[in-house]
Write a structure and sequence with these properties.
Distance between the termini: 82 Å
Low-confidence stretches: none
Mean pLDDT: 87
Helix content: over 70%
Number of domains: 2
């Protein structure tokens, strides 16, 4: 049974409304309502069978919608794969450092950053104390060491104060995941501020041009336990004072880069 004019107009309105809906919600380029209006005008002017026009437009719209959904899904999958790749690369970069797993609910990033800073504090930064003889610079070293101790240097089985504070946050009754994440991010920022300050301190030494740091490092005044001393000596063997400072700066810079903390620097 043929459609009457009101039924034809109602179906055309429904098709047009679908184009308008999908154009606004998804893509005006894909669901071009103006192109539909042009086809409708041409059909009316050409005295086309409107039932045939409506059936063709319904079929065209469904095919168009199907193609759009497939393309959108493919794009989303591609983006998801790219995100996964970036996350895997970032995880690989931090996993080259030792991990200190300090709580069942601790985040992956903070556990590796704690390990990286702890290693830096115990195995790398001690060289600065035997290179520097100037009392003013030694005061700066003392201050930097105190901050490292607070953030990342354990004493036996006792975690440093800042990690102990984070454990308290995790163990707090009713604590939300977002609160744990915020405190973890604060730890990252505090670590970044310290590492940037260490880099600036190293740059100051390098720029000073003092002759005393042109000579090979000696380790007689490195008073730490024997096994750790051997590792420090192996790491800095045959370097001048400037060469050792460069290595300290390089290690600190690598931590900042690997944990993507470059933007966390205090504005002076």
């Amino acid at each position: 049974m043929a459609l009457n004019r009101d039924e034809v107009n109602e179906l055309i309105k429904k098709i047009r409304d679908r184009y308008k809906e999908y154009s606004e919600k998804h893509s005006p380029k894909w669901f071009d309502i103006n192109a539909f209006d042009e086809r409708l005008t041409a059909a009316i002017k050409g005295s086309m069978n409107m039932e045939g026009f409506i059936l063709a437009e319904i079929s065209n719209f469904e095919k168009l919608k199907d193609r759009y959904e497939k393309k959108k899904k493919a794009k989303e999958n591609s983006f998801s794969k790219e995100v996964d790749k970036i996350l895997e690369e970032n995880t690989a970069r931090i996993k080259k450092y030792p991990q200190i797993f300090f709580h069942p609910k601790c985040g992956l990033e903070i556990s590796y950053l704690y390990g990286a800073l702890s290693f830096f504090s115990l195995e790398i930064f001690p060289i600065m104390r035997i290179i520097i003889s100037d009392s003013r610079l030694k005061n700066s070293i003392n201050s930097l060491e105190d901050r490292l101790l607070f953030l990342a240097e354990p004493r036996g089985n006792i975690h440093p104060k800042r990690i102990a504070d984070h454990i308290q946050v995790i163990n707090r009754t009713g604590v939300r995941d977002i609160e744990i994440e915020k405190d973890s991010n604060d730890y990252l920022k505090e670590s970044a501020f310290l590492l940037h300050d260490i880099i600036d301190f190293c740059d100051g030494i390098i720029d000073s041009g003092r002759d005393e740091w042109n000579y090979p490092v000696t380790f007689e005044k490195l008073f730490i336990e024997e096994e750790r001393k051997k590792r420090v000596v192996d790491y800095f063997r045959d370097l001048t004072g400037y060469g050792a400072v460069f290595k300290v700066k390089e290690f600190a810079s690598d931590i900042i880069a690997d944990f993507r903390m470059g933007a966390f620097k205090k504005i002076v």
